[in-house]
Amino acid sequence: MNRRVLSRGAIAVAVALAVSGGYVAGTRHADPQIITAAHAAPMMPAEAAAKTGIPDFSGLVEAYGPAVVNISAKHVVKRTARRAQQLPIDPSDPFYQFFKRFYGQFPGFNDGDGDAQPDATPSASLGSGFIISNDGYILTNAHVIDGANVVTVKLTDKREFRAKVIGTDKQSDVAVIKIEASNLPVVKIGDPQQSKVGQWVVAIGSPYGFENTVTSGIISAKGRSLPDENYTPFIQTDVPVNPGNSGGPLFNLQGQVIGINSMIYSQTGGFQGLSFAIPIDEAMRVKDELVKHGHVSRGRLGVAVQGVNQTLANSFGLPKPAGALVSSVDPGGPAAKAGLQAGDVILAVNGAAVGDSTDLPAQIAAMKPGSKATLDIWRDKSKKQLTVTLGSLSDTKVADNSTASAAPSRLGVAVRALTPQEKNSSSLNHGLVVQQSSGPAASAGIQPGDVILAVNGSPVSSPEQLKQIIAKAGSSVALLIQRNDAQIFVPVDLG
């Protein structure tokens, strides 16, 4: 892997360019002034910050740094003591005498008088956390203490405490631990909803074990969805974060915690400019449930969704690409009971817009099981409303198996109907199996073995039916296909 290094000179030029537009710390000056690193160095911190536009974080660190802790998590396994008589040992053996002299006893045995002393083999991890109450409640990441039975917390004043794990939630990667102490320093909790992309933020943590290390940067994006992390709208920053920073706080310039540093995106294992933090309002909701109930309850809709691009929007007659396109509905699930169908586009939940498919899981998960959600959906080129009683995310999820059908030259596929055996094995009653794919279909990613279930929301059962639908279609169609036990919509540009 090639690694790019930005020199100090390049950083100085970047700072100079950043202030040359006249905006310094959020205000516009009539006479912008470029301050070089050489001129800024002799200034007092506050004066330098005002001149260069780079904030002085020292006050923030002095006030809230003591509330940031180092966490050592270990899983200690005690070995079973064994008697020396289990294996005969000759005390006069030179090999035995060597170990007896330098180590006190032969490894795994005693000197024949009784049981060997049990020893411990710890597997340890290091992370960060921060104190949220003066009686010892601490927030960190679930992955920092995952599998640990010994959790030790070290404060900046060098005091160490054995911590009790109150609860962990792997879905959000939030954990709550507690130490027995009083009058502890605490952080202030902020509102991440009020933060803006481009604002300065500060991280304090223990990268690679270096306690209370301070780094800074800006908010790069908000509401970021990551693969396999469906229920957290992450705050993305360019704050240098490395292994050991996990669980530490992300501060705004008011000294308020707006997130928990959780992960980085890296091709090297180290920081590469992409850091992600759990919004603190999400983390505090999880904390409240862990403290009260020991677990977290989340709502479940029971659908699989995908994004809507321009081609799909055109196919469904949507004014613009937005919302979450339902590709499959769990049989017997909350959505199915409410009448939601594959091909519906969910535009809003309880009046809150669903800008993208990645927004929907977090919106639904934030609601309590058993609560009602009003969904604004797009169906048959018009808006409708459905009311859904949400299930629980812990419920067993039933996957919807299905198969598909298709076969006209304009689309570029050769298809056949499902055999009776295929229908029985897949619980499908319609669909066309793709045997060959070329032209527009191949360009869209349709593959042999895919099963075409519907075109623009209309189910297909025979090659002739598919051919008629394609002949009447416009410049694009949306195919609902079954592939590898999953249903997805594939937009196809017919030209």
Low-confidence blocks of residues: 1-46, 80-87, 106-121, 395-408
Give the neighbour order of strands across the main sheet: 3-4-5-8-7-6
Taking all Cα atoms into account, the compactness measure Rg is: 30 Å
Chain-averaged pLDDT: 79
Strand-pairing-aware structural class: alpha+beta
Largest sheet: 6 strands, antiparallel, barrel
* Global morphology: elongated
Note the total helix count.
13
Helix content: 10-25%
Count the strands?
A: 29
Assembly type: single chain
Structural overview:
- This protein has 495 residues and is of the alpha+beta class.
- It is 20% helix and 34% strand.
- It contains 13 helices and 29 strands.
- A 6-stranded antiparallel beta barrel has the order 3-4-5-8-7-6. Strands 10-11-12-15-14-13 form a 6-stranded antiparallel barrel.
- The protein starts with 7 loop residues before the first helix and ends with a strand.
- Residues 1-46, 80-87, 106-121 and 395-408 have low confidence and may be disordered.
Concise synopsis of the structure shown:
With 495 residues, the chain is an alpha+beta fold.
Write the layout of secondary structure elements.
Blueprint: H1 8-19, E1 23-24, E2 27-28, H2 37-40, H3 45-52, H4 58-64, E3 68-78, H5 94-103, E4 120-131, E5 137-140, H6 142-145, E6 150-154, E7 160-169, E8 174-178, E9 188-189, E10 200-205, E11 213-226, E12 229-237, E13 249-251, E14 256-264, E15 275-279, H7 280-293, E16 299-300, E17 303-306, H8 310-316, E18 324-329, H9 334-338, E19 345-349, E20 352-353, H10 359-365, E21 372-379, E22 382-389, E23 391-392, E24 413-417, H11 420-426, E25 432-437, H12 439-443, E26 451-455, E27 458-459, H13 463-472, E28 476-483, E29 486-493
Parallel strand pairs: 9-14
Antiparallel strand pairs: 1-2, 3-4, 3-6, 4-5, 5-8, 6-7, 7-8, 10-11, 10-13, 11-12, 12-15, 13-14, 14-15, 16-23, 17-18, 18-19, 19-20, 19-21, 21-22, 24-25, 25-26, 26-27, 26-28, 28-29
